[in-house]
Design goal:
β3, α4 and β4 form a beta-alpha-beta unit. α2 packs across α3. The chain contains 6 helices and 10 strands. It has a single domain, classed as 3-Layer(aba) Sandwich (Rossmann fold), CATH 3.40.50.150. By secondary structure, it is an alpha/beta fold. The protein is globular, with a radius of gyration of 17 Å.
């Protein structure tokens, strides 16, 4: 089923927005690093999103693959204040050290540090063996892949599949779908084709849900795609490192390199010496 502008129908209060602001306006929240496609969702969109997906994640073990928006913290503070039901546990994997650092700090500050964990992980690398097949639900807001026909999103989703349990596990992905934009149609075709080939169906797709802090494309909207795992079908890249050649245009057409991680000062690091594309 397709919905447009559903966010307008979700009731929100000033108290709930104030809770979200404790995360989004926190003085220690990292600034977005645009060269790796970090583009933060607007606070009202994050509140709508957290309330929308709360039924999918309550009482479940949720893994966030990339969390520049700090959606995990938004969910945590809302659950802590009884706005939504809490997940059983949240694990955050991100290759920007500033994100896990902030998640640890803020979760302690707001009293849910025992319900969340965060660590460095780069999607190029194999999933750590102790995390394979461990989670009930994945959540990801990947690079859009507007310059590589959706391949960026596919790589993130493939790693998410590895992180989750066999059927019936779920997934939530934030993806753009502009039916008037050919790049978006092609990217969504490739992403959904990949999903179906690897055991997932799109059970819900909610369009035009989220707005972003994006000066050069303020009209960009993304939607929520809910995925139901019907079969366990491994993808060929499972348990292996993705070659740099496969990462071309991963963060857009002007991308010149692919860092191994972002350090705590916001600087890209190339530990292998092979990050140049």
């Amino acid at each position: 089923m397709f919905y447009e502008d559903l966010g307008k129908l979700i009731q929100i209060s000033s108290h709930e927005l104030d809770l979200v602001a404790k995360i989004t306006q926190h003085p220690d929240r990292p600034r977005p690093f645009r060269p790796v496609d970090q583009i933060y969702m607007l606070p009202g969109s994050q509140l709508n999103q957290a309330k929308l997906i709360s039924d999918y994640i309550r009482g479940r073990d949720v893994v966030f693959l990339g969390d520049g928006d700090c959606m995990s913290l938004v969910i945590g503070i809302l659950a802590r204040n009884n706005v939504i039901k809490p997940p059983a546990f949240m694990r955050v994997l991100d290759f920007d050290d500033r994100i896990p650092d902030f998640i640890r700090k803020a979760s302690r500050e707001f009293g849910f540090e025992n319900e969340i964990d965060a660590q460095r992980y780069n999607v190029r690398d194999p999933i750590p063996a102790d995390l394979v097949g461990c989670h009930d639900v994945f959540y990801t807001n990947p690079p859009y892949g507007s310059k590589n026909n959706g391949k960026s999103g596919i790589i993130f989703l493939a790693r998410c599949m590895e992180l989750c349990k066999p059927p019936r596990s779920w997934g939530v992905a934030i993806l753009p779908f502009h039916h008037t934009e050919m790049w978006s149609r092609e990217a969504m075709w490739n992403i959904q084709s990949f999903l179906v080939q690897h055991g997932y169906v799109v059970s819900e797709m909610l369009r035009k849900m989220h707005s972003y802090h994006l000066d050069d494309y303020p009209s960009l909207l993304s939607g929520t795609v809910v995925l139901d795992r019907i079969r366990k079908v491994d993808w060929p890249g499972a348990s292996s490192t993705i070659p740099y050649a496969e990462m071309e245009k991963f963060y857009g057409g002007t991308q010149k390199d692919f860092p191994d991680y972002i350090d705590s000062n916001g600087n890209p690091v190339y530990t292998t010496g092979k990050g140049k594309l």
